[in-house]
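Continuing from yesterday's entry. The apo prediction looked reasonable, so today I'm repeating it with flavin-adenine dinucleotide included to see how the binding region is handled. Same sequence as before; SMILES copied from the compound registry.
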Amino acid sequence: MSQNISRHSDILVAGGGVIGLACAYYLARAGQSVRIIEQESMGAGASHGNCGLIFVSDLPPLCAPGAIGHELIRTLRGTSPLYIKPRPDLSLAFWLVRFAANCNRRHLNHAIKARDGILRVSGELFSELFAEEDLACDFEHRGVLMAFTDPATMQDYEKTNRLLEPFGRAATFLDRKAVRQTEPALNQRVCGGWHHPADSHLRPELLMAAWTRAAREKGVRIDEGCRLERFDIRKGKVTGALTSTGRFTADQFILATGAWTPAMGRQLGVRIPVQPGKGYSITMDRPAVCPRTPCYLVERNVVVTPWRSGYRLGGTMEFSGFDDRLNERRLNNLETSAALYLKTPLGRRVTERWTGLRPMSVDDLPVIDRTPRLNNLYIATGHGMLGLSTATGTGRLITDMILGRQPPFDPRPFSLKRFG
Ligand SMILES: Cc1cc2nc3c(=O)[nH]c(=O)nc-3n(C[C@H](O)[C@H](O)[C@H](O)COP(=O)(O)OP(=O)(O)OC[C@H]3O[C@@H](n4cnc5c(N)ncnc54)[C@H](O)[C@@H]3O)c2cc1C
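Holo prediction written out below.
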């Protein structure tokens, strides 16, 4: 009997990434009993080695007008961070077609507004979280510096910047001299930059460890090494989760299994057009001349993040399915890209070479919704390149949906209904 009781919670969250953890934390804070089940260990997926930017000014989606043509040209020049492995994969083909269809002005305007909603609230919630919890994760508020080596691309960024103005997220232009005054670690090739002051950064694996501890202190139970196999369904409701360590029951279920979510969705008859977008990072000791501000090396799509405790290069977007092998060429590309912009691009000792799968949705907007046919099952995935930045907002929105409270921002752009 006591075993049965301990296998029940108000809420069961599948997936121990930053999204599942955020949902669990806010629900536990609201007085719910919560269990997380994670197939490996907390933060084992994309939430571990990412670049750690809380990038609240990153409003334009990837699917912008001209994005496909632009990437094709860069692919031909060999400078594109995008790689699509040729293979017969219907779901990827379907995804690419829908992604391409979203590369238009109407979607751009819609997505910017939607992303502003969730990013603004997430930024505020992160500030609140750091004020309330002792989360040692090298958090700093220094903005993000977009660094350029090509004057034409730099000038072009003005167009993007204009889109951000109505949202109070515009960057300040820095010419060749000013950019090196702001960031002395940049080398002579850098012709200028745009500084976004609203952004901040942290070390994601430290955040995962500290936030997991805080969630446990709030009563969240965490079962690691526990894989969700399938849900038990009866009369339009999920009644249990069958896992590698047995059956769990709950009143409400949340599927926050990142890039792995569509497979589970298929079992439930819910279509979730999300593909794994593979990225890489290399973590090192701080180089001799270490940047003070995180830098986005625009022409190469590589991010450089400095922390008190280390330094990371991260980027690339590879559509090659669930392949977690480290590709040496892409790792080298991170290093050679950094060398184009920085005086001392590498630290002396590499501490980790990593790859992770971003959950990429067809319209570059997350999916945060209750499933239409199962009224106690919620989905939180598809956060793409912004899962850390939007984690707190997602956790709050899911909590408010479950508790029937007013959502903190317009949830409609994140609804499952948009996929028909
Ligand atoms: C190189 C790189 C750089 C990035 N930089 C940034 C950045 O600077 N800022 C930003 O905001 N975002 C960034 N991102 C994106 C961000 O990392 C992701 O959007 C985010 O981590 C997604 O979180 P998640 O919880 O949805 O997925 P994950 O962290 O992948 O978590 C999903 C979890 O579910 C578990 N799981 C899967 N299936 C099951 C199952 N059946 N049963 C139990 N558990 C299961 C997995 O093991 C995993 O731990 C970056 C990503 C990459 C790859």
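Comparison notes:
- The radius of gyration is 21 Å.
- Confidence is low (pLDDT under 50) at residues 1-5.
Will overlay with the apo model tomorrow.
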